[in-house]
Amino acid sequence: MENKKEIRIGLVGCGFMGRTHSNGYNRASNFFPDLQYRPVLKAVCSRNPEKVAAFASQWGYESTETDWKALVAREDIDAVDICTPNNMHAEIAIAAAEAGKMVLCEKPLARTMDESVAMVEAVEKAGVKNTIWYNYRRLPAVTLAKQVIDSGKLGRIFHYRANFLQDWTISADLPQGGESLWRLDANAAGSGVTGDLLAHCIDTAMWLNGAIKDVSAVTETFIKERMHQLSGQMQKVAIDDACIFHCHFGNGSLGLFESTRYARGHKALYTFEINGEHASIRWDLHDLNRLEYFDHADESNVRGWRSIHVTDGDQPYMDKWWVPGLGIGYEHSFIHQVADFLKSLETGEPCAPTFRDALQTQKVCEAVLESAASGSWKDTGVSGNI
Ligand SMILES: NC(=O)c1ccc[n+]([C@@H]2O[C@H](COP(=O)([O-])OP(=O)(O)OC[C@H]3O[C@@H](n4cnc5c(N)ncnc54)[C@H](O)[C@@H]3O)[C@@H](O)[C@H]2O)c1
């Protein structure tokens, strides 16, 4: 412990992601004992003094702030971690970079391309380490999917299919905006399911299958007006409740993506399937330790979908956990991201996805929304490996 270098964390926002990240910082050193860096929970910031004090005590932060600017200005903070709604990402990230802090920021990068570009410029100009929490990359079965694809086992890829389905906004009585409902307010969120859910699918897709070149999308807003939680007034709903798009990848394969918060019965069904010339793989967040794999080279009498339980020591990250056969959970993706971030400080390598990597996902989200608005195909401007 004494020999480890400290990395002093200042966390902004203590909701859902504040908890997952705090858990990640608390557990990374236990399970990745070889890391040279150790996170220290120096300060947490949220606007409500009682809530932030309770959060600090629950998760072990040394101190609290109620103004993020005060947190960013502190000399005893090395890294600012942004877990606020999307409308705060750009302002906090740019200020943190200008103060010379490392910046870890929740997805999506920001609400708009302008904000996103300014954030990339700020971290690159300041030369500070940066990363975006597209955490699904770091579930072992998803990382294994990347290894299988990169090994060439699938051969030429023909299809990439992904869904992210929820059902929590079906009631017309649900207000928009304010604490915990900011996702329904376009001013706070930027967009609806496109930035919130499809951004995850797009990040994973481009990591696994390369650049998305162009898109054709439709979006729908099923409930047109909702009461705003802060003003008490009925207001137009300006987010996309559902979005479906198809696309061309740079490698010639076709993509099909769907996301909605109106799929009754689905709480967080994130699935993807990739069909190649020789083999296919598929994954389902509800069964996150499994990767399904079909290999056409198997003898025909035993050929079929294999269900690989990704819990063995030679599978990604799993040598750090229990014994073969025992699964891990959603929260481990954040522990892995903390560990990879700390490792990147040792190696000097970027911690992917960086702000610049996440800008590519942002470009695709922007093209999706533009395509839906115009009814025409849109180029994304993304190329190369992500
Ligand atoms: N990686 C993932 O899988 C994942 C999952 C959920 C959310 N997210 C992202 O994480 C971010 C936060 O989402 P959440 O679900 O944790 O939201 P949340 O509503 O649960 O928490 C947001 C927190 O930010 C605080 N906050 C808001 N404005 C603030 C300000 N000006 N100063 C300080 N604190 C402020 C709120 O009080 C609250 O504590 C969003 O960008 C969201 O898109 C990512």
UniProtKB/TrEMBL annotation:
Domain Gfo/Idh/MocA-like oxidoreductase N-terminal intervals: 7-129
Span of domain GFO/IDH/MocA-like oxidoreductase: 144-282
GO molecular function: nucleotide binding; oxidoreductase activity
Keyword terms: Oxidoreductase
Domain of life: Bacteria
Protein name, UniProt field: Putative dehydrogenase
